[in-house]
Amino acid sequence: MRVGSNPSKTNFTIEIDSTHRVILSVYIPNLEEAYFKDSQTIFKYCIESLVNTVHSKTRISIVINGCCQEISDMIYDYQKKYPIIDQIFYTKENLGKINAIYSIVKSNLEPLLTISDADVMFLPNWQKEVETVFVDFPEAGMVSPVPSSKGFLFSTASTLYYGLFKGKIKFQNVKDPEGLINFQKSVGSNLYQKIHLEKYLVVSNGVAEAVVGCGHFVATFRKQVFEAAPTKVCKFRVQNNSEEDYLDDPNDMSGFLRLATLGNFAYHMGNSPHPWMKEKLQETLIDTSITTPLEIPDPISFSKSQYKIGKFLSRLLFHKFRRQFFSHLGVNEPY
């Protein structure tokens, strides 16, 4: 039998002090296979660079998503050391990236949620730069600290509509080509041609500028984006358009902008440690530029008709007549 009354019944409103949550889903099943043998080192760089570069209103959630015992123990040790790691979700089997992160996305109240792979090196000022984009573009729903010259191709119908009718869209010199070069090295593929390292597509609103589109290995979302997400459990661990269906498209279909910072403020490390990673981690240790969180304005919503118009225009301008459209914007080379 129960004695007394549950205090939650009189204090039933949930209030939080944090404004930004970072979610890491970690899948390292062993340290023996060639693909995973250096994953412990890579994850160490990831989590330490993260805790070194976030402001005081940040909380971190980690999903142990089918990890070996060494990695699980490592994560719990980090939780003891860093109080901002306030959530650890454990699952013995790999549930897939989407199901793992959605277990946290749907159960937290922070207005901004950063979703990151476990092989990202966070650089000083990444959080300030990302939050600044949300301040400058209240229409933004998804912002990455890593710009991509090819990001405009994916789930940017609402962004194109905005650039054509409410702001301005143009090509601009790439601010940090080294970031693009390092990314393609990390995935072991030649993603970019010479022109991609020189120019990227930028949207402006008279106040600020941001790169059109972004990847999703690290990106920050408004919580409202997930109100348009599928309600069914994702059946795929990775690939099969799972990230597009559950992350990218809900943002676009909601009428939010998909943007990236002009500069590069994070690196995708891949699964092989290199000396430069230690150097970059050291920079985060001595960084003194961490500031208080910015006040993020409420989102400005679009109508679904704008998304539909943008979808039609993106097929024409980003695909069928891309060369002509980009020539009009000042880039005459194949892009």
TrEMBL record:
Keywords: Transferase
Molecular function terms from GO: transferase activity
Protein name: Glycosyl transferase family 2
